[in-house]
Amino acid sequence: MTKEAGIIGYGAYIPMYRIKACEIGKIWGNHNGHVPIMEKAVAGIDEDLVTISVEAAKYAIRRAKIDPKEIGAVYIGTESKPYAVKPSGTIVAEAIGATPLVVTADFEFACKAGTEAFQACIDHVLSGRIKYAMAIGADTAQGRPGDQLEYTAASGGAAFIFTKRSNKTLAYCEGAVSFVTDTPDFWRRAHEHYPMHAERFTGEPAYFYHIINSVRTLMENMGLKPSDFKYAVFHQPNAKFPVKVAKKLGFTMDQIKPGLLSPYIGNCYAGSSLVGFAATLDIANPGDRILLASYGSGAGSDAFSFVVQDIILEKRNPIPSVRDMIGVRKYIDYSTYVKFRGKIRA
Amino acid sequence: MRKVAVIAIGYTKVKEHWGLSIRDLFTEAAIMALNEVTIDRVDALYVGNMSSGYCQHQEHLGALMADYIGLKSPPAVKIEAAGASGGMALREGFQAVASGLHDFVIVGGVEKMSDVLTPDITYAMAMAADQEYEAFIGVTFAALNAMIKRAYQHKFGVSDELMATLPVHCHDMASKNPYAQYPFKITVEQVLSSPFVAEPLRLLECSSPADGAAILILCPLEKAKEFTDTPIEIVGVGAATDAIALYQRDDLTTFKATIEAANIAYKMAHIKPEEVDVAEIHDSFSVTGVISLEDLGFFEKGTAAKAISEGEIAPGGKIAVNTFGGLKARGHPIGATGVYQAVEIVKQLRGEAGKNQVDNAEIGLTQNIGGVGGTVTVHIFRRVR
I want to staple A177 with a disulfide (CB 3.0 to 4.6 A). Which of A218, A223, B66, B229 is the partner? Predict the structure, then answer.
């Protein structure tokens, strides 16, 4: 019996609307171009976490070429639940045809909720109780108007279907680590619209400390070093942090470039590292080893090592790549943005 | 009045100390100082601090710190005078020893600002302004200093480029200071392209929130040689106050309290400004530092910025200033700043200033400002031969 879980299908979805960071800066008196990204993806007025998840899940099923009835678990990692009490997973499971014999749950761990779902799905399929398990990381993230987060908080997500490793899986997971501490760098209390954050505290003691420890622990456990990986994907709260953490860990720009999307779509929170991972799988070749490291405020980081398998080359077309989706964009101004994102309240 | 000397110093690195509490910071610096000398008692403790009540909901710092550094029930008190808390704590410690009331005194300064977010820090700092007549309108501390900068540049026709030379100088000094908050160089171009905090003050003209603690141990000069080969005498002590609200000032381009405190200290030390070899001045903002250089008598009014651009405050210039980076680049842990300044002058006069050592430094000066000039302390130190 295999001791490894593999990915049989994946899909991503990025809304087509974009707002330039300088457009947001213009509203708040920041005219000198000091913005953390170029532009971010914005969910349209009829989009939310569920629609984004369904789009990504459908692409994942098409790529997997499986019967959705065989999906035994649908887990959604997010902080953008349309309902405070009412699972998003049930709506998505119903929409993709996975109901009724399915386990669903919504996971919350800030930006690493998607990879929390990875951890659960991997163990589910390895237990043998479930044949296919779907993990989704997606968000329609919100930043308080005028706050630094408003430049980056974006919409998007990705879905991955796990099963036991076989010649039908396009990549298998050879190791995983979760590194968690109680570090309150970012939070949103009940009944509040926007999160609070502890400014620079979100950097060194939070993002960097947790990612560096999860990745180093993973590499130590597996006897790997940065040069053993063809690609690396890190959580992307802005354009700067993933580049800096890669450098601190000894990874190169060539390794992170395929999955570095924050300059163009922003930070889609629980979807951030997963969309980057999907973009990397879009161009990876059989045998390539990929590091995936998420970060979730509160705080923790999941690190995974995946190895790409032969069948990936057959699983690309006709599903649009992440880069294709990034290329389809329509720019909106700030007033349209606040309307789309429900920021106008009576 | 007895002569007073500094016999030991201690300090922490200035930065955002996420993992240390305010008592941890103070203790770390105190242990460093207590390890420098072997004394069998401490007679009193003075703790300079501005915002522990707001940032940590912790007052009663005197007893707290005395307990945490292991002292045997000495009288201990927190001294608060906004940004001049450290300088005023030093003054209290000096008085206690000079008067003969105490022999061995610890003077400390500590501030822990990273426990709260920027809006709270902004609010805490604005408490140094006149709440009833000025701060209640919402003006920030940076905004008050921005008004001063505008008035200064208008009156003396000093360009933005020249005003930017002080932070550039301070970063240059801090780049060789291992405990500085910002140990890297910057350029005039970077200063002028940084965003406005309060126009016309730009980000790189402003000191920023920081955590840190600094310690001095004082004793009578006559006993100092028993404990150290390099005692540093405090030869001049001056302090003065002014209206803390700007609208009550006759002239925004000078700090009257600096002039008065400096005159008292110079007179007591029997020196003139030109005899000072090295000075640590209060450059909380570029304009504050520039005005201070003039009010202390080092340069004529309206000429300090040009003098900085010509290298006059670098080691080897007319007077070496802020050789550890000043408030801008060493960092400005508010209530600790005045004590850091004294620590740095002691290091210079001992010949322990590393790469920024001023050759044959004999006389050093510190100037510590509270608010926008509402309180100013000036201390003058001399190497003991």
Answer: A218
